[in-house]
Amino acid sequence: MTSSVPGKWLWLALCVLASSAPVAAQTLAEAEGQDQPSGELVPPTSASDFTAAQLDAVLAGNWRSPADRARDRYRHPKQTLEFFGVRPDQTVIEITPGAGWYTAILAPLLRDNGQYVAAVPAPAPGRAGDDPLHKLFAGDPAVYGKAGIVTFDPKAPVFGPPGSADTVLTFRNVHNWVMAGTALAMFKGFFAVLRPGGVLGVVDHRAADGASLDAVKASGYLPVATVVKLATAAGFELDDSSEINANPADTKDYPKGVWSLPPTLAMGATDRAKYLAIGESDRMTLRFVKPDAPEPAAPPAGARSVR
User: Which contiguous run of DSSP H or E holds residue 57?
Assistant: First the structure.
């Protein structure tokens, strides 16, 4: 497959042009002794427009299956990644991507200018390379050849060198860590691998307002306050939230919890049409930021250093 993502020099050139074009246009107009003619100059593509165009190209990629594309209307990948501030020149770590629904978007988006890393739990002895992502990457190196995989221990996770990532993303995983008792350790691992100012993006099944964690955690839904508490306890600040992935049709009261809904459809043929009509779950979409390191305090006036 031929890459649809321009090389890094084009990306840098776009950013430079975006900042310098107004000055260049003004200089040209002054040299000609006239005002800048309206409607004759086309402004260069901004970084955000460039990212949006690349997302459109990736979402239309022929490596994405029809089944994956059908879920775009529930998962809103373009709007979600734009909300998290993902750009093609970043280092992005996705935590436990499963079979790789978002991997098929992020890996080619970041291939030429950034770095995509999938973080997966360490496999059982003798099972290395047997997970879906290894098979996905090996099966299409033109798309996934530059993607990386890192394994971690959920009880003491390390996702990479400290401060090495611009963005950490996790989709519909926090409820599993809460049930396993590893959630706080995971959030501390996210904090460690992110650079100061880096973003943690979280999407998960949202419990009904006022629901307690004990009452809902076995259902797969989580109170928003639980996720915020985990993140802030690890050192993050809540930067913003979005209703991009909201679904008001989700009543959150099903016999087999959130897994009653698609794509799992745990009830089988029972009320299948009902659950398909509801669609995927109502989800919180939260953006957290790792604060910049504080400036060192200035020594008191007149203080003398000790040698």
Answer: helix 47-59
Tens-place pLDDT, residues 232-291: 999 999 999 999 999 999 999 999 999 999 999 999 999 999 999 999 999 999 999 999
Give residue for tokens 């930067």.
239
3-state secondary structure of 17: helix
Q: Are 201 and 170 in contact (CB under 8 A)?
A: yes
Do residues 207 and 250 lie in contact, with contact meaning Cβ atoms separated by under 8 Å?
A: no
- CA dihedral in degrees (61, 97, 218, 127; nearest 10)? 130
**DSSP string for residues in 92-128:** EEEE--TTTTTHHHHHHHHTTTSEEEEEEEPPPTT-T
Does pTM surpass 0.85?
no
Torsion, Cα 73 46 97 241, to 10 degrees, reads -70
The CATH class for the domain spanning 47-246+284-289 reads alpha beta
DSSP-derived letter for residue 140 is -
Length, in residues, of the chain: 307
Do 119 and 152 meet the contact criterion of CB atoms below 8 Å apart? yes
For residue 263, whether the previous peptide bond is cis, meaning omega lies within 30 degrees of 0, is yes
3-state secondary structure of 72: helix
Per-residue b or e along 194-229, where b marks 16 or more CB atoms closer than 10 Å to that residue's CB: bbeebbbbbbbbbbeeebeeeebbebbbbbbebbbe
